[in-house]
Amino acid sequence: MTGEAGDLTRQLEDAESQLNALQRLKSQLQSQLEEARHTADEESRERQNLAAQMKNYQHENENLREQMDEESESKADLQRQISKLNAEIQQWKTRFESEGLLRVDEIEEAK
Q1: What are the angstrom distances between the C-alpha of 29 and each of 22, 24, 67, 86, 88?
Q2: Has residue 106 got a pLDDT over 70?
């Protein structure tokens, strides 16, 4: 019986040793799980922040494109007005030059 008791004691000690090792492993795995959850939560918050930031940038980009289109239209309108005014200036210049020459001719004829 003593031999059998020694075997049982040794088996009990082995089982307790395995139990302690498994408890340490369980504790380590729980710590790793908590760390992984914490990291996942941080990444999720960061992903949400980046998504919101991207949406804001897309909205800002759209507004800037609209503003650029409006500015381009305004520029084209101003260029058309400048061309029209330059043509009008040229007409007046030609008119005054021809009228001025006529008057110079009239003055010379009158002399």
Answers
A1: 10, 9, 56, 82, 86
A2: no
